[in-house]
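Batch queue: ligand-bound targets. Current item pairs a single chain with S-adenosylmethionine. No template structures supplied; prediction is de novo from sequence plus SMILES. Inputs echoed for audit trail.
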Amino acid sequence: MSQVATLFSKTKIDYSWSFSDKTRKDTAYITHGYHRYPAKFIPQIVSRLAEKYTKEGDLIVDPFDGCGTTLVESKVMGRPSVGVDINPVAVLITKARI
Ligand SMILES: C[S@@+](CC[C@H](N)C(=O)[O-])C[C@H]1O[C@@H](n2cnc3c(N)ncnc32)[C@H](O)[C@@H]1O
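Prediction returned. Tokens below.
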């Protein structure tokens, strides 16, 4: 078995990160349901990470911002944020959502 496969086989999976109990309604609150976008985060992942690794007032940067899930959640949580995306449609959606 490769070292990577061995590492994964020994890693305990924390299923609380699957958010499998979340419905579309749970993930589309405030402006999160405005527009579809490929490979979109569910907002609960962003808020859990922000809660764990930042405090109110910390700057959050998402260099591949997509349609702005990170920026919306940052605003809700009182963290200033900056998003960057190469796709002008993504930037437009983000501006509308925040
Ligand atoms: C999977 S999406 C991110 C979705 C986001 N996490 C959300 O929940 O809305 C990845 C984004 O990276 C952007 N991207 C890809 N290459 C890039 C680059 N070189 N510079 C900036 N953005 C880039 C794409 O346009 C796409 O919007």
